[in-house]
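Is DQA placement plausible here? Inputs below.
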Amino acid sequence: MNIQIINGPNLNLLGIREKSIYGDTGFDKYLDELRILYSNLTIHYFQSNVEGEIINKLHEIGFSYDGIILNAGAYTHTSVAIADAIAGINTPVVEVHISNVYKREEFRHTSMLARNCKGVIAGFGLDSYRLAVESLIVNV
Ligand code: DQA
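Reply from A.M.:
I modeled the complex. Tokens:
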């Protein structure tokens, strides 16, 4: 099974950025652990700070992979273009957030993407990604 994780803007700074919100573990370390935990799956990883590159990745893998875990960062709250890309592909997308966006500023309470996603997981720290993997392997 091919699972793609896509992290959007500023998520390359995990472990460095706003540690009280996002924790002090870098994503590479977490990804190593996740790949060990799910050694039966192929977990691909892509990060970009550029909206169009995220859209291109969705198009590239969105007709052949089994599941996509997308943390679009701040684009979650603004991007009609990413929402349209999700609507246009076949592979199910799970929207993920590390923080509980509903406990934070009001502008983070709106997702442009959620209606086109299979589901949304938010607020469990990096464990949100593992929960998203679970949701994909149970239901695909
Ligand atoms: C985030 C929440 C977003 O509001 C924020 O812009 C991020 C990270 C999260 O994982 O909690 O960059 O998606």
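Short version: The mean pLDDT is 96.
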